[in-house]
User: What shape does this take?
Amino acid sequence: MEGMATMELEIMSREIIKPSCPTPLSQRWYKLSLLDQMSYRMHIPIVLFYPSNDGYKFVEFSNELKKSLSEILTRCYPLAGRIGDGGIECNDKGVDFFEARVNCPLEGFLNHPEFEALNLLVPDQIQSNKLDLSSTLIVQITFFDCGGMAIGVSMCHKVADISTMSAFLNDWAAMARQKEEKEEISAQFITSFFPPDHSPVDLPEYVPKKRNCVARSHGVENPTRVQVVTALLYKCADAASKASSDSPTASDLVQMVNLRQLVIPPLPEKSFGNMAWCFKISAQEEGEVEFHDLVAQLKEGVAGFRLTYGKSFSWDELFRLMSDFRKSFGSLLKRTENIVRFTCTSWCRSPLYNVDFGWGKPIWIGCPSAMWNTIILMDTRSGDGIEALVSLEEQNMNLFEHDEELLRFASLNPSPYETH
Assistant: This one.
């Protein structure tokens, strides 16, 4: 966008927000479940954008967010603690809360969002050298010149997945909207469903690769199923990878899925913690991959879980399954030199666009991503399309963006004002 090159952000304040009530001694240690242990110690960043509201001033916005955050932390007390060995010490040390300002209007920022600029709005990207690395949650609110606002939230993946983050944001927003009568809002912890496994978790250390990569957003009109969109994006990304390489290699895609509704009986929608499964599909080394083959692999991956584990379900059986899966989890995610690895996760159906703190729902939701070869799918605000954040190495992205098959279905870097 015009002027983005000179966009400047000023951190105005930093505070520690603690729970409004002390955490009871009986809840001072939160054990990580087996699924939590299998998750990387990295943060999930997300930014929610809200248009100007003439009825509020910056100070009122900020004070209401701080107050309601303090109240919701009493119910989601692990988020105010610090990660330890195998669990969270729920010591009420609190959440880092930043206030910032940028020298541009929100409409200009969103006309054609630049994902590099999104990093300015996520707290751990800016202040990582000053923050406690054991923190589970960090918040930054950023005010634009026009009066619009962005709420950047970064939650540690070791304790939560996107469903947990979505539930937390909606509960926080509900707390902010309540003025008199307080409805009961509480997290539903799943550690009892998936107790910790005391054997070592053989998970390869996550080290983000410092590559020259770029990210693009693609609005896809009227998708039939998430699998179809995923297959299309994977097919085009695989083609770009092969075209840019002197010696094309095979590729695979690790697909993450939410287990909450896949298991029988289903887990509570607001289950706190990680509740994700993954499976892998692949494309051959030579020749163009067939689109229908990828769609079939994706469908079979989910259907295979339902068929194998979704019937006659018992928690003991699932725990045994997870214990067995843990042993092969490292090898599944381990990258090899002769295989190009892509990863896809779908945030569709997560009620992120319902997060209303009392001044309306977000006009757009962005996700900064520094991980290369990743695809993140989200519903558009109107719900009639899917928006995809695709992060590839730069030479591959140049080819990907000009793929004729992709361009028949997608618009590149659309403005949220156009797609919603």
